[in-house]
TrEMBL record:
It comes from the Archaea. Residues 238-436 form the ABC transmembrane type-1 domain. Keywords: Cell membrane, Membrane, Transmembrane, Transmembrane helix, Transport. It is a multi-pass membrane protein. The chain crosses the membrane at residues 88-107, 140-159, 240-266, 310-328, 362-393, 413-435. SUPFAM superfamilies: MetI-like (SSF161098). Belongs to the binding-protein-dependent transport system permease family. It comes from Halorubrum ezzemoulense. This is ABC transporter permease. It is found in: Cell membrane. The keyword Amino-acid biosynthesis does not apply.
Amino acid sequence: MTVRTRLDRIPTSATRAWLAGAVLLILPEVGALIQFAASALPLGETAVAAADRIPVLLSRERIPNQGTLVPGEGWQGTFLGLSPARAWGLRVGLIYLYGALCLYWIWRGYLLYRNRYRTASWTPFDDVVSRFRGHRWGQFGLLVVLAFLILAVFAPALGPTTLEQNAIDPYSYELDYYDDDTGDIETITVGAANTDTTSQGIEGRNVGPLTYDQYDRFHPFGTLPSGQDLFTQVALGARVSLFIGLLAITISGVVATSLALISAYYGGLVDLAIVLVSDATQSLPQLLVVILLSVVLSQTWLAGLYSGGVLLALIFALTGWPSLWRAVRGPALQVSERTWVDAADSYGLAPKTTMRRHILPYIVGYLMVYASMSLGGIIIGVSGLSFLGLGISSPTPEWGRLVDVGQPLLTTMSWHIAVLPGTLIVIVVTGFNALGDGVRDAIDAETDLSSEEETSAAASGAGG
């Protein structure tokens, strides 16, 4: 069936309803997606500021959580007079509900395509989906990864405050609070309020999780030693980790796939040369190479892109591609020996056409498996570098730096500073690995790709 024939079949009631629902879902939050793209790409401060002015339905301005508790009058300035905790919880719940609804609508769109527009009544992908729907460990990983993605995309709206107020320029913003001594509403700068609400591990100097400070601000994860809200930093740090991970795995995946196709198709000396380059790259101690390149290139223009995020992504990609290449080289070699590849050559197809049509589709699944596992390794690697002071530059938040800040207070009442970001790192990395396991088992339930050596290589090959 041609593309034109498929397009002619689109004006059906079911398709129109799905498209209308998709538009209604996207339009209210399209500003959040544009803001995410503007912050991730090196477009400059002007583009980021312009994106921030796009109205968003589920935003802090629509559902404010900062207010003043006036005795006898209740909360003033919050959404519907709710307490800051409930207003923040409502906003978070609606955002995750919106994300779940979008994912459900995408699934409904896939079913619509499969039942109405796909030419084949059955494809191997149907079996993959069916097996994955019965894989509980993989589904757990999928839920964790999706929750992480929503946290990263909607980070500015999920935080109780903004990065600008929280860390970059807190003394340029003010907040109102009720002063018990004067019996009146007073005004103080956010920076001064942060100074009075620090968490330093001692009595009177600690704002723990799910508590209010003396200025009526709710802190879901408590505060940092600087008095900044920890949850805001964690949410925005998820965006940084996601950007670096996706960019690094995309670059290394393209390199690994291209070299695997070339190795499988040409073989011989070409394959040997790629093997030598891969072995030479893997023989280097990756952690030392990453640290060395981070220090050497820290003063270049690359280090200024996304607070060093682009540089880190390039470093992890250039040092991690051999693991992905080895993961897909074997399946590519097996497919290259099939009769249909020889038949394609005998018909005179160009090598790139043969590789793209007859080899690439059979290794994409394996690439997805090991890419998912490698993403967890990259997140750990970035956090480790930030913990050592070599990762993302301040004031851009990053989970590893938060763990480093809270490490001296780990055994005090301010334990939350290190424990909460560290726990999230473990959960997210476990989620990516679980998703990789589920996809692996769903792609080929009979193929044993779970040996310790292969899984270890995939999980650590990009920074673990």
